[in-house]
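User: Run a structure prediction on this.
Assistant: Running it now.
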Amino acid sequence: MRRTFIAAIDHEVTGELGWQDSRIGYNNPVYGPLAGSPVGLAHDAFEHFTFQGPADECMALGAMYWIRYEGGYPGSGQYARPLRLEDFGSTFIDIHHACHQDDMAKAPRTKKLESHVESDLEEIVAIGAHYVIEEFPAEEKEIGESINANFRGWFRKGYRAAARKYGRMGMSACEVAWLFQQIEQALDGLRYRPDYEGQKLILNIVKSNFSLELGESEEYN
């Protein structure tokens, strides 16, 4: 698996230079460069399949559940802890904001996952709905209802896609979670900070091994 990140300025939030997954198009209304967020970069690399709109984040959360929740990801940093269902539910705020830029796509019909996963999924939706009610005005009720109606289908699709993708690579959820943490830690430092717009960072993954390489964009070659 190969991922390429391009250095770009985060004009929306920090105003700083950060890495952006090359699969994200320019002027994407939902996704942008990440400055100082190694876990965000690893999330994009491992858990995102596409970056078209809010539904893709719901899919990524399904992949995140399979990789980091079931895989036993321990967290990182001084206050590291395993993921909790509360962490998934709180993302409904970001998904709701994303729906201001792009509508939530209708989810495909999906078979239910194993009973314990479905139980967690229902709890995530309940937590998320609570956050949305607390955070957003009543006149945005339809957005919240759209998220609730479609989240389960996209989550299931992302969960199965991650299990299938990494299973074909011969990796279990635990192995992917371990590799996720190794790459996150490698990115958390000065060594891989971008120096200029357009610079490239190449991530190559072969089973449980990876390499990171800083390179120049074509315009600087």
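The radius of gyration is 17 Å.
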